[in-house]
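Q: Here's a chain of 312 amino acids. Please give me its 3D structure as tokens.
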Amino acid sequence: MQEFLTRKWIVIPIAIFCAILWGSAFPVLKVSYTEMQMATNDVIAKIVFAGMRFLMAGLILLVGLLLMNRKALAVTKRQFRFLVVFGIIQTALQYFFFYNGLANTSGMQGAILVSSGTFFTVIIAHFFYRDDRLNKAKAIGLIAGFAGIIVANWGQEINFTFHLTGEGYMILSALTGAIGTIMAKEMAVGIHPFALTGYQLTIGSVLMLLVGVPQIQENAIAFTPLGWGLLIYSALLSAIAFALWYSLLKYNKAGEITMYKFITPVSGALLSAMFIQDEKLNGFIIGGLALVAVGIVAINYHGKQRIPAKNA
């Protein structure tokens, strides 16, 4: 596995695939909210919906491992304590902040603030790992990628204001995601990446459902056949993307891998333009994709022939 997941020609396509999967969640969620008649300001309904999504995703992975590699599910008491904390931070807290913050910010602000998680991860990795320092190539990649997010979302409503429950929550969502990335890289020693993903999603989603279900209003979510299909797809994309992502993190530098997350909001804008009637493909989205591509090329240009397997 390590030999396979440390080659750039394998790592890069998998990282891009994960980012595109996460990007597809944007139009899927938008269509889901409309299809299931969830009120725009009903945060509890969205938390319950997210909890259902992540619980399904976690159980898909855990049941799959139970059938195919039961030994991978075994964890020590110390590892289980870590998984509980990890599930709370990476799933429950991150998406609590995300769904609440997104309800109180514009689309452009949300995309920009969420992408700050890439900055947080690269900066934390700079101080945490000796061989994952911020350098000129990464700086160019960060600037180009961040510019791509802004360009892709240009023209949407943006207000130069700050509210804790809006912009503040989006930043906290990005920060908790970055902390979770480093935790997955540093502390998940000896845990199979698929088991890590399954436990994390299951534990975090159970907490979300415990908080949300008692507070949800009657008929807040109207389930339809299409709605169930979208929910199942969103669960599958979470299971696949997180499992592959943690597999990459296990053997590669957190700072370099995380750079590919710039593709997520831009691909989300592109896919939204393709599948949502009121959103159209335009030059800004194409320009944003081009800038993100420049950022990816920058961080890989004149790079090592092979990404190191371990940190110092």
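Q: Can you summarize the key feature?
A: The radius of gyration is 19 Å.
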